[in-house]
Amino acid sequence: MIQRIQSIYLLVAGIISGGLTFIVSLWSNSQTNTIYVLDLFSGNSILEKSIPVLFFISALVAFVTIFLFKNRQLQFVLNRLNILINLFLLGLLIYLSQTLSGEALVSEKGIGMFFPIIVILLLVLANRAIKKDEDLVKSVDRLR
């Protein structure tokens, strides 16, 4: 059952959380310094240091969830947990982007700021597909 559509959604969500966030910038400030996720490890705040960890945890949960295809209920619960992680991550990114030191000057937000939204959308689509599979299995069990 690895070839199901929810596995594709989870794989793309894991690739976005685990790989693309380290390649694409989060924002750039007025001194044209581009900030990536790995640059946040050198920050002075615990919030800045937790963002790369949350991206990694989100990717790890997405990849682990792919291989739990035999236990659809656990897959569904882990996807909801991953959605909560990404909502928290989105809140942290919005908070940090609003409290940047050079925010009074011009700063540009990168596409990396929107990755948690894309991952949440993919996880919701995966949960829909898992629910559809669960309903199909329950309807077949009623016929026996």
UniProtKB/TrEMBL annotation:
The keyword Transmembrane is annotated on this UniProt entry: yes
Keyword Transmembrane: yes
One Pfam family recorded for the sequence: DUF4293
Region forming the signal peptide: none
InterPro entries the record matches: DUF4293
Protein name according to UniProt: DUF4293 family protein
UniProt source species: Tenacibaculum singaporense
Keywords: Membrane, Transmembrane, Transmembrane helix
Residues that span the membrane, as ranges: 7-30, 50-69, 81-98, 110-130
